[in-house]
Specification:
Elements: E1 2-3, E2 9-18, E3 27-35, H1 44-58, E4 63-69, H2 73-81, E5 85-94, E6 100-108
Parallel strand pairs: 3-4
Antiparallel strand pairs: 1-2, 2-3, 4-6, 5-6
Length: about 130
């Protein structure tokens, strides 16, 4: 959580560590990250992401991943600037009318010396195919 000097919440991030160490899938996952509209464009999201990446490094994760709506160009561009790549497309990940596809974006960490975790997949997957 990032708070203003007056105690107002400016932004927050929620994440977790998950996956299999044996399959080199142990990773940090961004469950949610948000910054209040009046505090955007100040680098807070980048700071929050950096903190989660540092924690993931300490947990010896191979990578950090997140899911983002394909239509959210501002967020996709921001994540790219932070070093994330589009790993795969997940069909109908977000429910709605109509359902919307997501990008699974990843950033390799130091444990993944060969950057295998961020080699993009060629074909899209369905949500039920995600481990």
């Amino acid at each position: 959580v990032v708070e203003s000097p007056t105690g107002q919440i400016m932004g927050y991030i929620m994440g977790k560590a998950e996956g299999s160490v044996q399959q080199e899938e142990w990773h940090g996952h961004v469950t949610a990250v948000t910054v209040a509209p009046e505090y955007r464009r100040l680098g807070l999201a980048a700071r929050l992401m950096s903190n989660l990446e540092e924690i993931s490094e300490k947990k010896e994760a191979y990578f950090v991943d997140l899911f983002v709506r394909m239509s959210n160009n501002v967020a996709v561009d921001m994540y790219k600037q932070l070093g994330y790549v589009i790993y795969r497309r997940v069909l109908e990940y977000y429910s709605g009318d109509p359902d919307e596809d997501a990008y699974d974006m990843r950033k390799a960490l130091s444990r993944d010396k060969e950057k295998k975790s961020v080699i993009p997949m060629k074909d899209p997957v369905r949500p039920e195919d995600i481990e």
